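Design job #97: recover the sequence.
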């Protein structure tokens, strides 16, 4: 069945925001007009109805103009161009927090279903750095996978960018187990992420370099295990992980053994080179956070220098000086395609933490392996991660 529908029939108010709906037989997702933020997302929609993404408790209910649109809407996953807070202008460009793509109103293009694949297409004409960004969100019948592709055209020069996925973990200590594919470098944000004089608190040691997420230095001289979350209530922290660029694809995963599913994100590590973990557990006591943003972790696939913005990412910094790029160079002559996919897989009893993800022999799925030797399978089209994929 082929179909094409117009915007007025698809936009509805969801969690306080005008949003477009896209659905397959297994997944339902909503994309906000402001910021193109994706949530709620319901996986296994005719079965267990799993909704792993976070929606901020104030989302859609904060009309205060002093709060930027990105925070008024805050939910799920969104595309950042540039990635970061951009407090320092870059070559005369003053971008809003995480860029226009996460704040401005997107324009409807189409919603089509063809051969079991449903695609929502939106576009945005950027003003700070003039150009165009095309957003495509796709779902395939029979898959619990959300495919996202952004095409950046008409722009030149260095740029930080990335996806800002946020998960809401069950309110039990260590209910989720976080893991990633092979890393080549890992570090805590070099400066304090939050300051007490600003009513914010962090606990990881600024600038600490570490080899394992299970042992990260804290300000008390102890170590924190970042693979088990929720933890460290009352603190917000940020670390950056550099993915191995030699991998055919890189991954981040959060396993929920009691809930019997794994959330995963797959990326091309030569386009999205780093993973930023934003660990948000009530450490911000100022508006709109007011210590109520808890049990949330951002698992953000980016090419950037932490969350510090375009200027810090484009110039030489301690990470890029080590040979790990923190920005990409755009050219107006050739659009940049940024593919990214997320999904869930049901897991058997005893499945604890993901230690590897590999293509299935039939190349129509991925196999997720746990530390305890259990295995799960999820239908996924891995060729989507290639920039020239259809």
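Job complete. Output follows.
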């Amino acid at each position: 069945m082929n179909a094409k529908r117009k915007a007025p029939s698809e936009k509805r108010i969801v969690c306080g925001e005008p949003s477009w709906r896209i659905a397959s037989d297994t997944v339902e997702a909503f994309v906000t007009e402001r910021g193109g933020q994706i949530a709620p997302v319901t996986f296994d929609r005719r079965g267990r109805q799993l909704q792993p993404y976070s929606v901020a408790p104030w989302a859609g209910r904060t009309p205060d103009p002093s709060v930027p649109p990105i925070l008024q809407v805050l939910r799920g996953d969104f595309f950042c161009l540039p990635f970061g807070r951009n407090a320092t202008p870059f070559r005369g460009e003053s971008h809003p927090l995480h860029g226009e793509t996460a704040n401005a109103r997107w324009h409807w293009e189409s919603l089509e279903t063809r051969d079991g694949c449903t695609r929502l297409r939106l576009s945005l004409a950027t003003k700070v750095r003039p150009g165009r960004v095309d957003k495509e969100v796709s779902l395939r019948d029979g898959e619990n996978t959300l495919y996202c592709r952004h095409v950046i055209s008409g722009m030149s020069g260095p740029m930080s960018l990335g996806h800002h996925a946020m998960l809401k973990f069950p309110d039990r200590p260590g209910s989720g187990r976080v893991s990633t594919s092979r890393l080549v470098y890992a570090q805590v944000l070099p400066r304090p992420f939050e300051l007490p004089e600003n009513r914010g608190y962090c606990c990881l040691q600024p600038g600490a370099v570490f080899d394992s997420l299970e042992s990260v230095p804290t300000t008390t001289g102890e170590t924190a295990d970042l693979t088990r979350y929720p933890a460290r209530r009352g603190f917000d922290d940020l670390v950056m992980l550099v993915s191995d660029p030699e991998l055919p694809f890189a991954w981040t995963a959060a396993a929920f053994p009691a809930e019997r599913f794994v959330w995963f994100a797959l990326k091309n590590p030569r386009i999205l080179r780093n993973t930023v973990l934003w660990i948000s557990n009530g450490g911000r006591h100022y508006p709109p956070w007011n210590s109520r943003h808890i049990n949330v972790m951002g698992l953000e696939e980016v090419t950037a220098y932490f969350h510090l913005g375009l200027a810090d990412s484009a110039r030489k910094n301690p990470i890029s000086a080590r040979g790990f790029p923190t920005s990409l160079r755009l050219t107006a002559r050739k659009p940049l395609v940024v593919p990214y996919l997320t999904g869930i897989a049901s897991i058997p009893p005893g499945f604890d933490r993901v230690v590897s993800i590999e293509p299935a022999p039939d190349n129509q799925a991925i196999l997720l392996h746990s530390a305890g030797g259990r295995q799960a399978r999820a239908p996924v089209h891995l060729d989507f991660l290639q920039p020239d994929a259809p």
